[in-house]
Design goal:
Elements (H helix, E strand, L loop, with lengths): L2 E3 L6 E4 L11 E6 L5 H8 L11 E2 L2 E2 L5 H11 E4 L11 H12 L5 H11 L15 H13 L5 E5 L7 H18 L2 E5 L11 E6 L2 E4 L11
Parallel strand pairs: 3-8, 3-9, 6-7, 7-8
Antiparallel strand pairs: 1-2, 4-5, 9-10
Helix pairs in contact: 3-4, 3-5, 4-5, 5-6
The protein binds adenosine-5'-triphosphate (ATP) and magnesium ion.
Length: 225
């Protein structure tokens, strides 16, 4: 996959010939310097934008063949998102925020009871009926994780999910994502500039100048005469 922004002199090759596949249940980190293409990669996989060349295939569906309308509904059904800021709707309760993705899908039979279960798992049972602007930053990010999981997505995509949190709160949020991944067999693709915070994960992809390769760059040791 290749993604080029702009045209002519202002053209930026944000991603160049990137190719990899992710297995179900994997917890994958994307690391790399600022401007190396991490968010672009996540935006392509998240179907928020289309690649210039190449395809994003999710659950066997080549998403290049979908219309914009089909992409939106596919995204609502198959993908969950966690951003740097929780972006909860402040006028709604925590529970209503987490129920929302399922209501958008039009599948709300068990939406409320499922959202309650998720909120209990992320430790927010006591905050469930509070308005979203009445909880702490760490609690909001835990609610955002529950919301990201609410539609049982094939993949949860997170761009710097701990970027706005102090290191202690970040640690709880990281552990929560990893345990949700194990518990639910949930695939996560997480962009971070601080991979040490995550400890051991299934897989690391490093982006560099728009290229992507397996593993941490720092783990490559060469000794020559
Ligand atoms: N919408 C856009 N229009 C034009 N250029 C863009 C756009 N989005 C990203 N770029 C460029 O593409 C390259 C990759 O950007 P990207 O945001 O993917 O980097 P990143 O690895 O997420 O960086 P950071 O760690 O700072 O968030 C950069 O050169 C950036 O300036
Ligand atoms: Mg980025």
């Amino acid at each position: 996959m290749t993604k080029i922004y702009g045209e002519g002199d202002t053209q930026v090759r944000a991603l160049q010939d990137v190719s990899f596949s992710v297995s179900k249940g994997e917890f994958l980190l994307v690391i790399g310097a600022s401007g190396s293409g991490k968010s672009t990669l996540l935006n392509m996989i998240g179907l928020l934008d289309r690649p210039t060349n190449g395809n994003v295939i999710i659950d066997g569906i080549n998403t290049s063949t979908l219309s914009d309308n089909q992409i939106s509904s596919f995204r609502n059904r198959k993908l969950g998102f966690i951003f740097q800021s929780a972006n909860l709707l402040s006028d709604l309760t925590v529970l209503e925020n987490v129920t929302l993705p399922r209501q958008i899908m039009g599948n709300n039979g068990t939406a409320i009871s499922d959202a309650k279960k998720l909120l209990t798992t992320v430790g927010l049972e006591p905050q469930m009926y509070k308005r979203a602007n009445k909880i702490s930053g760490g609690q909001a990010q835990r609610a955002a994780i529950a919301r990201g999981l609410a539609n049982s997505p094939s993949i949860v995509l997170a761009d710097e999910p701990t970027g706005n949190l102090d290191s202690v709160t970040a640690e709880t949020v990281v552990q929560l994502m990893k345990s949700m991944s194990r518990k639910l067999g949930q695939t996560f693709i997480v962009v971070t500039h601080d991979h040490r915070q995550f400890g051991d994960v299934d897989r690391v992809i490093t982006t560099k100048d728009g290229r992507a390769f397996e593993g941490k760059e720092s783990s490559k040791i060469e000794v020559t005469a």
